[in-house]
Amino acid sequence: MKNHSSTGQDQLEHRLIVEGASCASCVSKIEKALSNIQGVQSAQMNFAQRTVTVVCNVADASLISSIEIAGYNAKIDTSESEEAIDEKDKVDAQYYKELMRDMSLALLLGVPLMIYGFTIGEMTVNTNTERLAWFVVGLLTLAVMVFPGRHFYVGAYHSFKNHSANMDTLIALGTGIAWLYSMMVVALPDLLPLMARHVYFEVSAMIIGLINLGLAVEVKVRGKTSPKF
């Protein structure tokens, strides 16, 4: 920690690692949450490194608690030690593997559905056989949303609790609405005109798969100098 002069108590520079931040809105929310703490002089987040530097006379526990209330996880950055650097590399490598797994599971469903829609047939519900088939696809898509896409919905929930919106909110709304509308088409096709009986399960699966891929690439770039990858 570095000392900073102050008219009151000495201000110390605290450095924290933040997990779960996915966009500029997250950065703004984290900095605002920290700045609102009495005794905090400044709070600045490095989005690329997922770290936030806080100049204050506040205990680390209070800073971490404020970030967690905002919907994110945080811990003290001890990256000056070789052991901490090695541990961070291991965490990033594990996170990368999880994102690649989630991406693979989502695209395993999304890509065939998209190919089917473009080449073989229309993704519509007109017969009972089609209803049954798309119902099964709907359940598979729900599984993709619950498992590979879970972190998006958790992030959106935390943002909702804090009366804000971020990238997770957009993903949750987009995939959720596409899935709900498609299930309505499957369950109650007679209530809709023929031209509106189109399902969009591939949209939910592809969005989750591609964004997980993007996050994995981001982690890979951050840790490209690490042998753990």
From TrEMBL:
<dbReference type="GO" id="GO:0140581">
    <property type="term" value="F:P-type monovalent copper transporter activity"/>
</dbReference>
<dbReference type="InterPro" id="IPR036163">
    <property type="entry name" value="HMA_dom_sf"/>
</dbReference>
<keyword id="KW-0472">Membrane</keyword>
<keyword id="KW-0813">Transport</keyword>
<dbReference type="GO" id="GO:0005507">
    <property type="term" value="F:copper ion binding"/>
</dbReference>
<dbReference type="InterPro" id="IPR006121">
    <property type="entry name" value="HMA_dom"/>
</dbReference>
<feature type="transmembrane region" description="Helical">
    <location>
        <begin position="200"/>
        <end position="219"/>
    </location>
</feature>
<feature type="domain" description="HMA">
    <location>
        <begin position="12"/>
        <end position="75"/>
    </location>
</feature>
<keyword id="KW-0406">Ion transport</keyword>
<protein>
    <recommendedName>
        <fullName>HMA domain-containing protein</fullName>
    </recommendedName>
</protein>
<keyword id="KW-1133">Transmembrane helix</keyword>
<feature type="transmembrane region" description="Helical">
    <location>
        <begin position="132"/>
        <end position="149"/>
    </location>
</feature>
<dbReference type="GO" id="GO:0005886">
    <property type="term" value="C:plasma membrane"/>
</dbReference>
<dbReference type="Pfam" id="PF00403">
    <property type="entry name" value="HMA"/>
</dbReference>
<keyword id="KW-0597">Phosphoprotein</keyword>
<dbReference type="GO" id="GO:0055070">
    <property type="term" value="P:copper ion homeostasis"/>
</dbReference>
<dbReference type="GO" id="GO:0043682">
    <property type="term" value="F:P-type divalent copper transporter activity"/>
</dbReference>
<feature type="transmembrane region" description="Helical">
    <location>
        <begin position="103"/>
        <end position="120"/>
    </location>
</feature>
<keyword id="KW-0812">Transmembrane</keyword>
<feature type="transmembrane region" description="Helical">
    <location>
        <begin position="170"/>
        <end position="188"/>
    </location>
</feature>
<keyword id="KW-1003">Cell membrane</keyword>
<keyword id="KW-1278">Translocase</keyword>
